[in-house]
Automatic annotation (TrEMBL):
Pfam families registered for this protein in UniProt: MazE_antitoxin (PF04014), PhoU (PF01895)
GO terms of molecular function: DNA binding
Every SpoVT-AbrB domain range: 8-53
Protein name (database record): Phosphate uptake regulator
A Gene Ontology biological process term: intracellular phosphate ion homeostasis
Source superkingdom: Archaea
Length: 332
């Protein structure tokens, strides 16, 4: 760390020198324009650039299948606006994988395609993206998935269960958008300024979005388990699971309301209500476990996994409540 003393020139202008090593590394010299971004008691400085698009290149010669999918997804989440995929000769299998990835990510489109390279571009304007809207949408999708998964189980509606499984892709797309926005705020203060949110608040949204994505995963798990049942399930067990689901939804809703609440006192109260709800759910789970002991071991095991998924969803709501409490706490 280096320190500098602030000086006054001309009687009213405050000046401070910048480290030469930093200036050299970032091509800053006489006449270079820089941008300042205030953030509380901090002031961020960055060289001004005319480039509006961040370009990244990746050699995919040895990448296939899931490895290629993960590589392209990582480039997207990392914030590259133009992704250039290169190889000595891109195979048809690789092109098919690339197209599937592009279709699964929000805003991407294949811009150019030749024998040895594929260029992908993000068509969305980052400044127009809203992390608040994305997380709010994730809340709606994850809770509707969980509700429909429980309904599919109680009615043994396999078509509805498959529909829940299909909706998980929509939730994953939004999660990747939130991750992309959040990483952009870490990389440059300009992104946070365009969002109109402090970076700490973006972190809170990102943390909560991760919990909602996991709720969707467990809804999907319940849907898959539903496909394993062919005969009607005991009404007493189904009723108990439905009550457990209602309690879990109440926890998640209270936690999300607390996260989105501007009044810090109200947010703290709502978050504590959500945390108390998680503790109360544990008692209900123990009662359901007693009911499962009277069932066939194979069915009891599958239903036990369903109960565990609902319980974990409530736990994720508790995690969101913890984030809301931290958000509502005084800033050091």
């Amino acid at each position: 760390m280096e320190t500098r003393k602030v000086q006054v020139t001309g009687g009213s202008t405050y000046t401070v020198s910048i480290p030469k090593s930093w200036a050299t590394e970032n091509d800053v010299g006489a006449g270079t324009e820089v941008e300042f971004y205030p953030d509380g008691d901090s002031l961020f400085l960055t060289p001004r650039t005319d480039e509006e698009r961040t370009r990244g290149t990746l050699d995919i010669t040895d990448l296939r299948g899931q490895e290629l999918t993960r590589a392209v997804t990582t480039m997207y989440v990392s914030g590259f606006d133009v992704i250039v995929l290169e190889g000595s000769e891109i195979a048809a299998e690789q092109r098919s994988t690339i197209r599937e990835v592009v279709q699964s990510l929000v805003g991407l489109e294949v811009l150019e395609e030749t024998r040895d390279r594929v260029v992908i571009r993000d068509l969305l304007d980052s400044s127009e993206l809203s992390i608040h809207n994305a997380v709010t949408r994730m809340r709606l999708i994850s809770l509707s998935m969980l509700a429909d998964a429980i309904t599919a189980l109680s009615e043994l509606d396999h078509d509805l269960a498959r529909d829940v499984i299909g909706r998980d892709d929509d939730l994953d797309r939004l999660w990747l958008v939130v991750s992309r926005i959040f990483r952009a705020t870490l990389r440059t203060p300009k992104a946070a300024e365009e969002l109109g949110l402090p970076r700490e608040e973006c972190f809170d949204y990102h943390s909560s979005a991760r919990q909602l994505e996991r709720v969707g995963d467990h809804a999907t798990k319940i849907a898959y388990l539903t496909l394993s049942f062919e005969e009607p399930l005991p009404e007493t067990v189904i009723a108990a699971i439905e009550d457990l689901h209602e309690d879990a939804v109440e926890v998640i809703d209270s936690a999300m309301d607390a996260l989105l609440e501007d009044d810090t006192d109200a947010a703290g109260r709502q978050a504590n209500v959500a945390r108390a709800g998680v503790r109360a759910i544990d008692e209900r789970v123990r009662a359901i476990d007693e009911l499962l002991r009277d069932l066939d071991p194979a069915r009891a095991q599958l239903l036990g996994l369903v109960v565990d998924s609902v319980l974990r969803s409530a736990d994720y709501g508790g995690n969101i409540a913890e984030t809301a409490l931290q958000k509502a706490a005084p800033t050091p």
